[in-house]
Specification:
Layout lengths: L3 H4 L1 E8 L4 E8 L4 E5 L5 H11 L2 E6 L5 H4 L2 H12 L5 E2 L6 H4 L2 H8 L17 E4 L2 E7 L8 E5 L4 E5 L2 E2 L2 E2 L9 H12 L7 E4 L5 E2 H7 L5
Helix pairs in contact: 2-4
């Protein structure tokens, strides 16, 4: 990476919840400004990672409304206020996932643990950008796994936060009442596969991959 702002982007992954969801802490190395992406739970573990990196959280960003991605957002926001006095806004996903965020507490109870519903400070729509210091993430709407799922693309770093849209060798589940497999595949093919092969991505569970590797070998995309 030759672009100076790109070279300053750093990140850490904190696996959270029994679903081992990849919560990400991304920050600008120079300013230590950070954002937490998809804090699904285990707030104490996320707070410990934030303290270890020495960053200042500017926002909490959500890709979609599922419990394992958003269930810790409200608690994390409260913990950060208590520790720093600053209330980082919860931003995203698309408003079409509001019904999922409204049902997190009930869903968590069914799995035997506690989580809070989420009322985002700001909904996000495709075409907007998310900034973190000098870093700019473009917003893409990629429905199918959930109606309001968003993906965040950092073109300078050639890096994507895909949530549960795309995985190494697989794609997001669509066997929910609101799932739409055709919409998911269409979103991947029209919005992600046009990106160059060397774009890497972090997904919601398991190891990441590259657009090129999935274009060549993902059986769901053939």
């Amino acid at each position: 990476m030759t672009d100076a702002p790109t070279a300053r982007l750093r990140g850490a992954i904190v696996p959270v919840t029994p679903f081992q969801q990849n919560c990400a802490i991304l920050w600008d190395e120079a300013s230590k400004q950070a954002m937490v992406v998809d804090p699904g739970g285990d707030v104490d573990r996320i707070m410990a990672a934030i303290a270890q990196t020495g960053v200042t959280v500017q926002r909490i960003l959500l890709t979609h409304g599922h419990l394992d991605h958003a269930g810790g957002a409200t608690g994390l926001q409260a913990a950060l206020v208590a520790k720093t006095g600053f209330r980082p806004p919860i931003e995203g996903p698309d408003r079409r996932d509001a019904f999922l965020l409204d049902g997190i507490a009930d869903q968590a109870a069914q799995y035997g643990f506690a989580a809070q519903n989420v009322a985002p400070d700001r909904w996000i729509t495709e075409g907007e950008t998310i900034t973190l210091g000098p870093h700019v993430f473009e917003v893409l709407h990629c429905p199918g796994h959930t109606p309001g799922h968003l993906v965040y693309v950092h073109r300078a770093a050639r890096f994507i936060l895909v949530g549960d849209v795309l995985f190494q060798g697989s794609v997001g589940r669509t066997d929910f009442p609101y799932g739409d497999h055709d919409a998911l595949i269409a979103a991947i093919k029209t919005k992600l596969l046009p990106l160059d092969d060397d774009y890497s991505f972090l997904c919601g569970h398991g190891p990441g991959s590259t657009i090129g590797a999935e274009r060549a070998g993902n059986p769901f995309l053939r």
